[in-house]
Amino acid sequence: MTGYPTLPDSSLQHLPRNEEQQKFSLGRKGLKHKGKIKVGINVGLMVIQKGGLRPQRGRTISLTTNPDISATTLLSQAVKKMKDFNKDVKDGPFLLLYPDGTEVINIPGTQRPFTLAAYKAEVGKSYQRITVFICLKRDFEEGPDCFRLGDHVQTRSQPSRKQQAAERSQNTRLLGRLTP
Predict the structure, then answer these.
(1) Radius of gyration of the chain measured on its C-alpha atoms
(2) Three-state SS string across the chain, please?
(3) Which side of the chain, N or C, has fewer Cβ within a 10 Å radius?
(4) Average pLDDT over the chain, rounded to whole?
(5) Is the pTM above the cut of 0.70?
(6) Hey, which CATH number is domain 39-178, 3.10.20.90, 3.30.450.40, 1.10.260.40, 3.30.420.40?
């Protein structure tokens, strides 16, 4: 003997791994988080400028959220983040708007309720290229039914703001009846 301890023959055998050891050997596959996916979109602020409702320059922020988010939850997250980063944003009720200035209620051209994933599929853009806007309800209702893009006047082909407000209140009443 040379003075080195010898190992028993049983320790040299390759034993099958138990469940606990397998958890540590998953490699890169095991590191993936199986929770909810987060996606990044852009949120801008629309205000009345030059007689129309327009996006305000320099007021677009990034928002990381769940793709299955509804319009009301997205609105509350967007308003919170916008107020956190821009202290001069006025208080009041806000609305969520599409880039064309129409209110986000349903997916455009359908009767399906808005979800970010459904909107992405309909628009055909990646999440990071999607921009929605928030606007004070007062600005939205006081703004004209047309807005200027350069020298051209573009009128809204969708319902007027009063009709949208009536539809919104009707939808709110319907949702109130559906929820317990």
Answers:
(1) 27
(2) CCCCCCCCHHHHCCCCCCHHHHHHCCHHHHHCCCCCCCEEEEEEEEEEECCEEEECCCCCEEEEECCCCEHHHHHHHHHHHHHHHCCCCCCCCEEEECCCCCECCECCCCCCECEHHHHHHHHCCCHHHCEEEEEEHHHHHHCCCEEEECCEEEECCCCCHHHHHHHHHHHHHHHHHHCC
(3) C
(4) 77
(5) no
(6) 3.10.20.90
**Which amino acid appears at position 98 of this protein?**
Y
Instruction: Tell me the C-alpha distance between 124 and 119, whole Å.
Output: 8
Please write the tens of the pLDDT for every residue from 114-143. Answer: 999 999 999 999 999 999 999 999 988 886
Residue 121 CB contacts under 8 Å (≥ 6 apart), including other chains: none
